[in-house]
Write a sequence for this structure.
């Protein structure tokens, strides 16, 4: 059951478990599909299989009032299907930067544009945050790294992403971390604005060259 220790009225947060693997895959796929709608992201299932564990905590946010989780989740899927893209609080994923120990790129299958998998009785989460560990290659310090932050379109612009970022910051402080890392696409302006407003700064650039 959800825990109600969440700073926004009408929402609760629950710590996930390794049983949530299939649901996490769906959320990651939705994250990337919003940024790259014509791309197949079935290979992300392999990434979750490889990195999701008790050492990489996951949190889910649920709606606790109003129309209810299942109805709101359905509405969010309708908006996506209709192409109504609201600006996001966050869509980002795995790190490969010069100051952190790299996480290998994912490879392997599932399907695209699927809604979260839950039983008919289960509430449908409307946001999630998945985190893990990275090593700062300059200092050698371990620190928290945000793998995924996602809020469904129909619940954006309500402060959920910001509240989740504060939640992970509190978690990192409690275990003695001195910094938090993340990776964000330069084309994801809403996410960049969110992170910069929260005090995040660019430390390194991930550069690629397409070879033909």
């Amino acid at each position: 059951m959800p825990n109600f220790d969440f700073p926004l009225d009408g929402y609760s947060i629950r710590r996930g478990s390794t049983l949530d693997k299939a649901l996490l895959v769906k959320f990651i796929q939705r994250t990337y599909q919003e940024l790259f709608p014509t791309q197949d992201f079935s290979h992300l299932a392999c990434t979750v299989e490889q990195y999701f564990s008790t050492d990489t905590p996951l949190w889910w946010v649920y709606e606790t009032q109003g129309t209810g989780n299942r109805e709101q989740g359905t509405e969010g899927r309708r908006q996506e299907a209709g192409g109504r893209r609201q600006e996001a609080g966050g869509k980002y994923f795995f790190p490969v930067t010069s100051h952190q120990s790299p996480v290998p790129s994912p490879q392997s299958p599932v399907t695209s544009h699927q809604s979260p998998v839950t039983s008919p009785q289960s509430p449908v989460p409307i946001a999630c945050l998945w985190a893990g560990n990275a090593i700062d290659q300059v200092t050698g310090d371990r620190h928290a790294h945000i793998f995924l932050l996602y809020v469904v379109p129909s619940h954006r612009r309500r402060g959920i992403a910001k509240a989740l970022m504060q939640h992970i910051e509190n978690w990192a402080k409690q275990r003695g971390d001195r910094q938090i890392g993340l990776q964000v696409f330069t084309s994801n302006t809403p996410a960049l604005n969110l992170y910069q407003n929260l005090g995040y700064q660019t430390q390194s650039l991930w550069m690629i060259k397409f070879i033909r």
Summary: Residues 67-118 have pLDDT under 50 and may be disordered. The longest helix spans residues 21-35. The first strand starts at residue 11 and ends at 15.
